[in-house]
Amino acid sequence: xxxxxxxxxxxxxxxxxxxxxxxxxxxxxxxxxxxxxxxxxxxxxxxxxxxxxxxxxxxxxxxxxxxxxxxxxxxxxxxxxxxxxxxxxxxxxxxxxxxxxxxxxxxxxxxxxxxxxxxxxxxxxxxxxxxxxxxxxxxxxxxxxxxxxxxxxxxxxxxxxxxxxxxxxxxxxxxxxxxxxxxxxxxxxxxxxxxxxxxxxxxxxxxxxxxxxxxxxxxxxxxxxxxxxxxxxxxxxxxxxxxxxxxxxxxxxxxxxxxxxxxxxxx
Length: 267
What we know:
The protein has two domains: 3-126, Oxidized Rhodanese, domain 1 (3-Layer(aba) Sandwich); 152-264, 3-Layer(aba) Sandwich (Oxidized Rhodanese, domain 1). The protein is built from ten helices and ten strands. The chain has helices at 9-14, 32-39, 70-79, 99-108, 120-126, 155-163, 174-177, 212-219, 238-247, 259-264; strands at residues 6-7, 19-22, 46-47, 88-91, 115-117, 152-153, 167-170, 195-196, 228-231, 254-256. The strands form two sheets. The chain has a five-stranded parallel β-sheet. Strands 6-10-9-7-8 form a five-stranded parallel β-sheet.
């Protein structure tokens, strides 16, 4: 497993990185994550909101969490002192569900990928880390030059990749994949041809990433696919699966950014 992709709480206590981002969020209550941040966070951490900071404006297509505009996202990072080579750590308390979105965005834009805190905020507290309520003032830097996100596709790109034989992976819970329930999007089911690898299978119940053998068991024969395209409900939790693939050495998988919520918009 590639050690620099994860950081343990005791490491973070001993070697504070340049910038820490708190990515806690709840799809059921968009304000809950920020409220938790204000109640206590890792000292020096800045808060990033999934809807406002890690996504772009919602339109008729593109899904519930479209990718942000690259220049807007780069400017946001610069306001927090993050350039392409800055050391960053990200965490949440949802088994990497939202921290991995930041990981994917930074990597995709050509920045140094952040390390994700193994076990999240609860691991920090369990290791003796203190909670801080003060909101730090960011130290801005110059924005990076314009770039574009890579390793993603829209619905037309997805169809082209499927036509070339790519294996499509649905990262949602099995009941949503099977169409037995759909609590968020207007249509239940999955994209034809997709297999199911629920994103929760990447971590244990305490939010810690499984070992190499556990991750390989999670993916099974899908690891042998020549090309992988991963999606979820809106392109967020799919990043947990993409993170796990990178841990296993598969850095070539593609994110269907709009995911099921974008697919539904064309039905």
